[in-house]
Known about the structure:
Blueprint: E1 2-4, E2 7-9, H1 14-59, H2 70-99, H3 106-133, H4 142-148, H5 161-188, H6 192-215
Antiparallel strand pairs: 1-2
Helix pairs in contact: 2-3, 2-4, 2-5, 3-6, 5-6
Amino acid sequence: MLMIDNQIELEEPAVPRAQRNNRNRKSVLDRANRTSTSTKETMKKSNSRKTIELLHRRDAPLETRTDLTPSATKDIAAAMNAILADVFAIYVKTKNFHWHMSGPHFRDYHLLLDEQGDQLFAMTDPIAERVRKIGGITLHSIGEIARTQRVLDNDAEYVEPLDMLAELADDNRTLAARLREAHNVCDEHLDVATASLIEVWIDETERRAWFLFEATRRVN
């Protein structure tokens, strides 16, 4: 206790002041801990998102980014991979008949089928690349083509020339119909780019069927 100008000033007790200091220090530490915890949680969430994205990329390393929905990619890729398998099957059959052509019109038919084979083969890469562009996976092997194709093979040792042309004409007409079905799938998902390519392939396929039909007209 101090006497100053007849006024009495009481000293603050030492213990309460120490307690206040401890409380202030604890409050500062608590705020620091809360800030640290909040920062750690934010970092944890950020790292969690990055981890999820990394795991997703590992699970789907060939997934191409696209504004199409996953269901659109799935449907269109399935339709176009089936088309791709059919095109490969018709291409091989066309080359088979080209190699085994015979008879008095050999040169004309041989050259016709060579031209059509080139046109069919030219379709394969754009079809496969289109599937990849929209985030899908395309065919990997001859075995996968065989499992996916809907066109029947012809392994006969000998086929009459006109029967060759008639069979290819039917295959191309069927392919045109399936291309239209694939076009409808693209329209459903607003995939204008794939649809526009299909329109060109329909025209080319109908042209092949037309030429093959005219070459066999006399027996129809």
